[in-house]
Amino acid sequence: MKLARFIVSGESEIRSGIIEESNIHEFTGDIFTSRILTGKTFSLDNVQLKAPLTPRHIIGIGRNFVGEGAPKPEVPEMPILFFKPLTTVVGPGDAVVLPLGTDDIKFESELAVIIGKEARNIDPRNIHEVIFGYTVANDLGAFNYFHPEGHWTIGKSFDTFCPLGPVIVTDFDYHSARIQSTVNGIVKQDALMERIITPIDSMIAYISRFMTLMPGDIILTGTPAGADQVRDGDVVDCYIEGIGHLQNPVIAQKS
């Protein structure tokens, strides 16, 4: 099943829907527990897709992929984790705004996991019970705002620094996912999930040891080699086959 949020052309109301072929069927209610079809159907050609959900928390993991051909290290006892605020979230086609005072900003194409049930101290073997679905994320960071002592919070937290979309896919096999990206049509990333260091099941289990995961929490699972700097005027396209393209223009912040 593919779920999305959207605006009908000429309107401003954000609706939710289930995508089937070239149409989207509107529903109301809670996306996780009580989707109620309204009977209204719209052509995808007549809607603008938005970020597919408003997350509860956004938790990222850093340095979680190895390059092609490089030996894979042991899974770390304590992965590098960080939070991104909700003001970082934008949707497909929305602009990523480069803040003033830095030109060292990188994009990162990533698989985002969406939690659908409360989870605390979950066994890695049971994570399928709490995953609701998957989407594509672009985890941007201003690297000169990374603290020299190690924390990444400021650099990851600028408004618009977490595009999400285009849809949520609920029946997706992430084990064989291929993460790709282009900037202005030039390929930057192309790697399989097999290059991941901390597997998704271990990652979710570890996070659930120190915080209760709730429906709507998003976990950004890391990015493969090739993430690069972006500049004013660039267009970044993050792509995962089976989920879709997440394309965003990059613009400089006005003083």
Describe this structure in words.
The protein has 255 residues and is mainly beta. Helices cover 6% and strands 41% of the residues. Strands 1, 2, 3, 4, 5, 6, 7, 8, 11, 12, 14 and 17 form a 12-stranded mixed sheet that branches. The protein is globular and about 55 Å long. The mean pLDDT is 96.
Brief synopsis:
The protein is mainly beta. The chain has helices at residues 153-156, 200-210, and strands at 2-8, 15-20, 23-28, 36-43, 47-50, 58-62, 80-84, 89-90, 96-98, 105-106, 109-115, 131-138, 141-142, 162-169, 178-183, 186-192, 218-220, 235-240, 244-252.
Looking at the structure, what is the overall shape? globular
The whole-number mean of residue pLDDT values reads 96
Percent helix, as a range, is under 10%
Task: Please give the number of β-strands.
Answer: 19
In the predicted model, the low-confidence regions spanning at least 5 consecutive residues are: none
**Radius of gyration, whole Å:** 18 Å
Q: Which range does the strand content fall in?
A: 35-45%
List the helices and strands and how they pair.
Blueprint: E1 2-8, E2 15-20, E3 23-28, E4 36-43, E5 47-50, E6 58-62, E7 80-84, E8 89-90, E9 96-98, E10 105-106, E11 109-115, E12 131-138, E13 141-142, H1 153-156, E14 162-169, E15 178-183, E16 186-192, H2 200-210, E17 218-220, E18 235-240, E19 244-252
